[in-house]
Amino acid sequence: MKSGFRKKNRKAIFSFLIILSIVLLSFWGWGSYIKNSILFVASPALKTVSLFAHATKDFFSFFASIGDLKEENKKLIEGNKKLFSQNIELEDLRKENEDLRRQLDLSPREEFDLVAAFVIAQDWQGRTNLMVINKGEKNGIKKGMPVIVYDKNLLGKVSEVFGNSSVVRLHSDPQSFINVEVMENGAKGILRGDFGLGTIMDMIGQNYEIKAGYRVITSGLGDESPRGLFVGTIKEVRDSPDRLFKQALISPPFDAMDIRSVFVIKAKK
After folding, report:
1. Disulfide-capable partner of 159 in 81, 169, 244, 251 (CB 3.0 to 4.6 Å)?
2. DSSP label of 225
3. What is the predicted pLDDT for the residue at 152?
4. Max avg pLDDT among 20-34, 53-67, 120-134, 198-212
5. Nearest Cα residue to 262 out of 161, 190, 254, 177
């Protein structure tokens, strides 16, 4: 018991002496020396801690910068996509305007009252031979009006009309019937579409001599199409199944799939 008490007293006295020494040394100006000594002894450990702290900071800053780069890269990609889309739209608009100007230069504006329109939809599989244009009832379009492309080439007729759009039935459609004639000899017939064969001039009298290369135009009889619209060139001649008439396979002057702009003939001037 006494020995334990003595040890506790010694520790207390020793601690008191150390505290007293530090106070006296500080009073005599030795405090900074002690502080510097302690810092000198502890400086390697402090340097290690400082380096570790800077490394940890740099480590997290690196990952933070990666996140910032990803976000910036995402914004750049989205911006490039938007610019790419805008460039496509501008290029498409430029082509449409060029096509329309070219057709306007070749269109019979002095002869007909025309409404220019763009093709906005088409039967790409060629089953019905229909297309949709961006002009309709509000533009004075009516059912039955003929539709042409450059230089009086007949494309078809308006089959349905809506407020701001119309459906055009191409003359290559089986439900299309147009009165036509051969320019070289005046032979008359009916132009109709035929699946698998394209466009056929039917009901040609056997007394007419028809040859490949002859040109076919609208006759202006019995429908809304004015006379003189070019339909195509005769490619092949044959007899009808009953041999009462001749038939001619017509080659059109254009590919309907390439048409971007058209003109609707409202009336003849």
Report:
1. 169
2. P
3. 87
4. 198-212
5. 254
Report CA Rg, the chain. 46
- In order of their start, the domains of the chain are 112-268 (2.40.10.340)
Question: Under a CB-based contact definition with an 8 Å cutoff, are residues 164 and 134 in contact?
Answer: yes
* Residue whose entry in the numeric block shows the structure tokens 């036509």: 180
What's residue 259's pLDDT?
85
Residue/partner pairs of 208-212 with CB below 8 Å, 24 or more apart? 208/182, 208/246, 209/185, 210/182, 210/185, 210/234, 210/237, 210/246, 210/248, 211/184, 211/237, 212/236, 212/237
Give the mean model confidence (pLDDT) for residues 31-50: 48
What's the CA gap between 103 and 33, in Å, rounded? 99
Instruction: Return d(Cα 234, Cα 185) in angstroms, integer.
Output: 13
Instruction: Give just the sign of the alpha carbon dihedral 87, 90, 93, 99.
Output: negative
Of the candidates 182, 199, 198, 202, which has an alpha carbon nearest to the alpha carbon of residue 190? 202
pLDDT at 258: 82
Which H/E stretch holds residue 3? helix 2-27
Which pLDDT belongs to residue 5?
A: 46
* The pair of three-digit structure tokens given for residue 18, joined into one six-digit string: 């150390």
Q: Tens of pLDDT along 220-240?
A: 887 678 899 999 999 999 998
Residue 165 is encoded by which pair of tokens? Answer: 């759009």
Give the residues across from 168 on adjacent strands.
131, 158
The backbone torsions φ and ψ at residue 79, rounded to the nearest 5 degrees and listed phi first, read -65, -40
Can you read off the two tokens belonging to residue 232? 């195509």
